[in-house]
């Protein structure tokens, strides 16, 4: 399509190649990150994912070869041939990734007659697509590729031989492997081969397509309906380095407020403040730890955003203040659809300012959501984002501690917004086709900015729709799952792949949103939720209520056990988030991330790692009381019994309903807090260390858990070192937060020792 190369030039760190029928550009961002670009639609990148200057100004060389141009960085060699075919090699000259030279071979088309039969029987027959996309890149398969990432897609961890689409979609049917798209568009994947690994980020916001070797085993491809050919080839020595590089480009999840890592209770169905108060009181009565309660759409007056339903929820803010006295933090939902109603301030302000999306004829575009007829803020316009950010003040003043952005695909009840609905892309008009996949991303960004401005603490935002880079502003949940065992099973690969895609702070609706949970399913789900970064029980109106105490004593005790475990492990989870801000690595990780040479890890869907030290092997099948556990190389200890296990082994672990098998790597020092009902109940001046034999070290991080002071050094950092000879040292590496731990409790093989701490190095004989 590009034809032969005529000339090239190198200017300001960009290599521009002039082909017979177009321009191609290669830009080394860093030694390991190379942008491949062609202005197939517009001159600039206009990225929504990448903010700030990411070009590191590295040195690279350009050499003319007989049939190609060679661009070399310290880590990579990029060979660009005629027709803008691009191949990547590492510095040892090993081929990492080559463009496919043949034509795509489409599958057999079905005749119209048979398509009619299929439709007549009610089959949902997908479009017969045998076309090349407006923008398309086809890469050669070498044969042993595994693919990971791609955001929140359904199915298993390894995406080889599957195809997906990026088009943020709210489909309330039970999500199955047949779904091509869900709520998020994260056009980034990692390719793992026996001897190499790399990532590709296709930064195109239009409806896009990813075929990971499904159409043919010879190639995989990505393409889009419109936009630029704009992708980043991301190299690195291993998977963690690829994630680090991808999140260098698109940003990392910032350290959250500590309380947000506690337990959350939600339900679409708390219809009055009395209902909410009763739920909160019951948690405290039963001594089940909890920090956060979510208010779904019923707290609003007729589902009008930034209003309060006084009839059912009383005086605005009173509920929130009362709950706060008992340690609860309240998160409120805010949807993008603004009710069309003259006299309603938000509607009037938006109309006066021209803040809503328009039809091509210039009328305000109207569709329907919860409030009935509704209009859609044009979040691509920075003025609208500022307005939206300012609206958060209303919630902050009521005492709200976090905002839940829902329905921001955007969802609409009278069919999807037509592609030609007019939106703004910063400084120029654009359409829905371009902005659809970034609508939720930009809404979350505006919400984040508003909370930062008016609350000042680290903003807590939860969103349903995302694009690459949303992790800088928001946490996310996997939308409307159902109380199905399949959805519990899917939660593991889905959350792990989101983590690999930069979305570190994620969770599922624990217990399932739609359909009716059983006591057993809720019990097993809380055993997974306990280790997922966002731990929220949420369910839908019309489904069985799923607060922990509604299913009898056994279920109650299991919920309590794992919620308490979550609170014990809060310092570990917080440390993982501290690490995440530096590296982009999510707390919840697939085994393959740290054991990429391990064949068994490639397709491990039933286990995951929490950080690199803990392995969780939950039971996710009804009626199962045993789990087949696989441990990768090394020595591991059973968290519950202390039993030593050699890795690179499968074995059967007994797992009655109240047991989620957990393993801790030898040489681990696991920080714990003492029991609490909520964050802020008492000073966190004691740290418990669970010590596992072996050689190891651990960096622990401590701050006030709330504000941005840590960015200017207001934190403490401790180093714990354990040696195989049985000595443990505790040392202070950085002191910037005035509340040092006063006491360390050391637990080792059933023995407990206590030590006062004054800041001086401690050496302990276990
Ligand atoms: C959507 C959300 C769900 C919420 C409901 C009502 O379905 O995904 O979490 O409870 O809307 O607001």
- In terms of quaternary structure, the protein is single chain
Q: For the largest beta sheet, what order do the strands appear in spatially?
A: 31-30-28-25-21-20-19-33-32
Strand content: 25-35%
The rounded Rg comes to 26 Å
Count the E strands. Answer: 49
- Identify the overall geometry: globular
- How would you characterize the largest beta sheet? 9 strands, parallel
Task: Please give the count of helices.
Answer: 15
Précis, in short:
By secondary structure, this protein is an alpha+beta fold. The protein has 15 helices and 49 strands. The longest helix is centred in the middle third of the chain and has 17 residues, at about 380-400.
How would you sum up this structure, described in words?
With 766 residues, the protein is an alpha+beta fold. Helix content is 20%, strand content 30%. It contains 15 helices and 49 strands. It has a nine-stranded parallel β-sheet with strand order 31-30-28-25-21-20-19-33-32. It has an eight-stranded antiparallel β-sheet with strand order 1-2-3-4-18-15-14-11. A six-stranded antiparallel β-sheet has the order 34-35-36-41-38-39. It starts with a strand and ends with a strand. The mean pLDDT is 97. It binds alpha-D-glucopyranose (GLC). Alpha-D-glucopyranose is lined by residues 268, 296-297, 333, 406, 464, 479-480, 513, 538.
């Amino acid at each position: 399509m590009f034809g032969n190369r005529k000339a090239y030039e190198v200017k300001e760190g960009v290599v521009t190649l002039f082909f017979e029928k177009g321009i191609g550009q290669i830009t080394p961002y860093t030694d390991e990150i190379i942008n491949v670009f062609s202005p197939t639609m517009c001159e600039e990148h206009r990225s929504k994912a990448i903010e700030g200057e990411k070009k590191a100004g590295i040195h690279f060389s350009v050499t003319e070869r007989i049939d190609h141009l060679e661009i070399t960085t310290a880590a990579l060699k990029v060979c660009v041939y005629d027709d803008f075919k691009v191949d990547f090699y590492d510095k040892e000259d090993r081929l990492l990734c080559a463009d496919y030279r043949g034509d795509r071979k489409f599958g057999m088309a079905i005749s119209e007659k048979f398509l009619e039969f299929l439709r007549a029987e009610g089959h949902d027959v997908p479009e017969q697509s045998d076309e090349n996309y407006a923008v398309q890149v086809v890469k050669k398969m070498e044969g042993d590729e595994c693919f990971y990432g791609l955001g929140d897609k359904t199915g298993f961890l390894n995406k080889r031989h599957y195809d997906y689409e990026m088009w943020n979609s709210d489909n309330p049917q039970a999500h199955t492997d047949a779904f091509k798209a869900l709520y998020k568009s994260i056009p980034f994947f990692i390719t793992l081969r026996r001897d190499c690994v790399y990532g590709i980020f296709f930064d195109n916001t239009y409806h896009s397509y990813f075929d990971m070797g499904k159409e043919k085993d010879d190639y995989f491809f990505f393409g889009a309906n419109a936009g630029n050919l704009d992708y980043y080839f991301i190299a690195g020595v291993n998977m963690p380095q690829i994630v680090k590089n991808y999140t260098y480009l698109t940003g990392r999840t910032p350290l959250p407020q500590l309380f947000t890592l506690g337990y959350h209770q939600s339900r679409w169905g708390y219809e009055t403040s009395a209902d909410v108060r009763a739920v909160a009181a019951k948690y405290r009565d039963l001594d089940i730890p909890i920090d956060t309660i979510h208010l779904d759409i019923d707290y609003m007056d007729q589902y009008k955003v930034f209003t309060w339903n006084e009839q059912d929820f009383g005086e605005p803010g009173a509920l929130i203040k009362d709950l706060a006295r008992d340690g609860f933090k309240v998160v409120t939902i805010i949807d993008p659809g603004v009710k069309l109603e003259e006299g309603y301030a938000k509607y009037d302000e938006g109309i006066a300012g021209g803040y809503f999306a328009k039809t091509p004829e210039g009328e305000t575009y109207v569709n329907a959501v919860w409030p009935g007829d509704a209009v859609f803020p044009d979040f691509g316009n920075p003025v609208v984002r500022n307005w939206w950010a300012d609206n958060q003040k209303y919630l902050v003043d009521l005492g709200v501690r976090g905002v839940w952005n829902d329905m921001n695909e955007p969802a609409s009840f009278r069919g999807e917004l037509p592609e030609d609905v007019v939106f703004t892309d910063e400084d120029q008009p654009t359409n829905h086709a371009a902005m659809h996949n970034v609508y939720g991303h930009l809404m979350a960004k505006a919400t984040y900015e508003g909370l930062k401005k008016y609350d000042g603490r680290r903003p807590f935002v939860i969103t349903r729709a995302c694009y690459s880079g949303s992790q800088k502003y928001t946490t996310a949940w996997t939308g409307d799952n159902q109380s199905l065992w399949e959805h519990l099973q899917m939660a593991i690969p889905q959350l792990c792949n989101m983590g690999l895609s930069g979305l570190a702070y994620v969770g599922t609706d624990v217990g399932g949103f739609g359909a009716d949970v059983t006591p057993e399913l809720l019990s097993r789900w809380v055993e997974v939720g306990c280790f997922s970064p966002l731990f929220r029980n949420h369910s839908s109106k019309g489904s069985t209520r799923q607060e922990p105490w509604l299913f009898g004593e056994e279920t109650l005790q299991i919920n309590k056990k794992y919620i308490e475990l979550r609170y014990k492990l809060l310092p570990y989870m917080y440390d993982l988030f501290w690490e995440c801000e530096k590296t982009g690595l999510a707390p919840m990780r697939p085994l393959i991330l740290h054991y990429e040479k391990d064949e068994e890890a490639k397709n491990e869907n039933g286990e995951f790692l929490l950080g690199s030290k803990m392995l969780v092997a939950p039971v996710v099948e009804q009626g199962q009381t045993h789990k087949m556990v696989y441990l990768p190389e090394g020595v591991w200890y059973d968290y519950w019994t202390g039993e030593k296990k050699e890795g690179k082994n499968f074995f059967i672990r007994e797992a009655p309903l109240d047991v989620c098998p957990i393993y801790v790597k030898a040489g681990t020092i696991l920080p714990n807090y003492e029991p609490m009902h909520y964050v802020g109940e008492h000073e966190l001046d004691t740290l418990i260390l669970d010590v596992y034999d072996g050689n190891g070290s651990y960096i622990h991080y401590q701050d006030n858990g709330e504000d941005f002071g840590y960015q200017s050094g207001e934190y403490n950092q401790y180093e714990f070192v354990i040696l195989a000879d049985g000595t443990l040292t505790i040392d202070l590496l950085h002191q910037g937060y005035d509340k040092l731990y006063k006491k360390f409790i050391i637990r080792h093989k059933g023995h407990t020792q206590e030590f006062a701490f004054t800041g001086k190095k401690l050496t302990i004989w276990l």
